[in-house]
Amino acid sequence: MKIEHEVTGVRVVRKNTIAETLTSYLNGRFSGAHPYLFLSKLFSRKSLEERLDLSSVLYGPLWKEYEGERAYERTFALVSLDMETDIREFYREVCEAGYYPASISEGLSFALVLSARSIDVDPMFHLGTVLFSREYVEQRLLTKKNGEFEIVALYPTTKLKPHYKIAVLKKTREQRFEK
């Protein structure tokens, strides 16, 4: 695991849903393109049941604790992996380094800053926001190039891939993040 591209003072504006977060991110990334067209790619060629499942994830409220603020600034870094890594091992290493995984709103805010600096952030795996399917399968969001996203099932045995990038935040004194 390698922590790189630490940036202080990144402005984060929390959104209410994943769809709203993705739309905001795509608006900032693809000027002139309508962001809902990119979201619609997620629904194409899926059965009705899969579309309902995806819709419940994308348009369900984000319930993570918002630290009492909807907009704030934080210090971020990007983590790259040398090899496949166990999720528990990853969390342990990140916590020991003084960081914790960013939520989707936070990670995409940071991705826009990195993109403006011409730093490649694709694909980014978002570990900080827990998503559940209608069957209560834990899932995470994987951002890909050109406005494509994938919602991936996450099991205790899931390994993080070496080509993933993961946005993390520097811990502050008042934050107590344990995994």
Task: Describe this protein's structure.
The C terminus is likely disordered. With 179 residues, the chain is an alpha+beta fold. It has five helices and nine strands. Helix 1 crosses helix 2 and helix 1 packs parallel to helix 5.
- How many individual helices? 5
Low-pLDDT ranges? 175-179
Tell me the strand order in the biggest sheet.
Answer: 1-2-9-4
State the distance separating the first and last CA atoms: 18 Å
Find the count of extended strands (DSSP E, 2+ residues): 9
Overall outline = globular
Q: Determine the strand fraction and express it as a percent band.
A: 25-35%
Helix content: 25-40%
Report the major sheet. 4 strands, antiparallel
Q: On the 0-100 scale, what is the average pLDDT? A: 79
The SSE order reads EHHHEEHEHEEEEE
From the alpha-carbon coordinates, what is the Rg to the nearest angstrom? 16 Å
- Class inferred from helices and paired strands: alpha+beta
Layout of strands and helices, then pairs:
Layout lengths: L1 E12 L4 H12 L5 H9 L4 H12 L11 E10 L4 E2 H10 L2 E3 L2 H13 L7 E9 L5 E6 L5 E5 L5 E2 L4 E6 L9
Antiparallel strand pairs: 1-2, 2-9, 3-8, 4-9, 5-6, 6-7
Short description:
With 179 residues, the chain is of the alpha+beta class.
Keywords summarizing the entry:
179 residues, single chain, four-stranded antiparallel sheet, globular, alpha+beta, three-stranded antiparallel sheet
